[in-house]
């Protein structure tokens, strides 16, 4: 396996994003539409936080039953904002971070996605799924 391959080669560049002004109903629709589990929260592409599908499930079990359901019960979501639910203390990496370094970070933390930033600006995202796909390609 190559030791110096950077996350720039495996990161998702066209990232689905949320703004603080977006609501949790929109977030759930994006999770389901794009079949993703993590959405960075940005302001003018500056990273502010990360919302995971698990974060939504923590506040509402109602939609955990059917992920293919298009209709969202917004009752619980109207009680919270994206800012209240998102993770704010983020660990971010740069495009030059090696895949090995990213894997080490994710293996030691309790989250499954890393925003890839140049300064404060979001340029991509790397998830545990991206790392597994990369590993599979090596065999």
From TrEMBL:
<feature type="domain" description="CBS">
    <location>
        <begin position="86"/>
        <end position="139"/>
    </location>
</feature>
<feature type="domain" description="CBS">
    <location>
        <begin position="11"/>
        <end position="67"/>
    </location>
</feature>
<dbReference type="InterPro" id="IPR000644">
    <property type="entry name" value="CBS_dom"/>
</dbReference>
<dbReference type="Pfam" id="PF00571">
    <property type="entry name" value="CBS"/>
</dbReference>
<dbReference type="InterPro" id="IPR051257">
    <property type="entry name" value="Diverse_CBS-Domain"/>
</dbReference>
<keyword id="KW-0129">CBS domain</keyword>
<dbReference type="InterPro" id="IPR046342">
    <property type="entry name" value="CBS_dom_sf"/>
</dbReference>
<protein>
    <submittedName>
        <fullName>CBS domain-containing protein</fullName>
    </submittedName>
</protein>
């Amino acid at each position: 396996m190559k030791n110096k391959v950077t996350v720039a080669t495996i990161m998702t560049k066209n990232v689905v994003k949320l703004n603080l002004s977006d609501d949790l109903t929109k977030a759930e629709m994006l999770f389901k539409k794009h079949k993703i589990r993590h959405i960075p929260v940005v302001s003018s592409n500056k990273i502010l936080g990360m919302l995971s599908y698990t974060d939504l499930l923590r506040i509402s079990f109602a939609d955990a039953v059917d992920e293919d359901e298009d209709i969202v019960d917004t009752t619980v979501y109207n009680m919270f904002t994206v800012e209240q639910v998102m993770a704010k203390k983020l660990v971010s990496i740069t495009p030059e971070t090696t895949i090995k370094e990213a894997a080490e970070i994710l293996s030691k933390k309790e989250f499954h996605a890393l925003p890839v930033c140049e300064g404060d600006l979001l340029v991509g995202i790397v998830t545990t799924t991206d790392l597994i796909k990369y590993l599979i390609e090596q065999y």
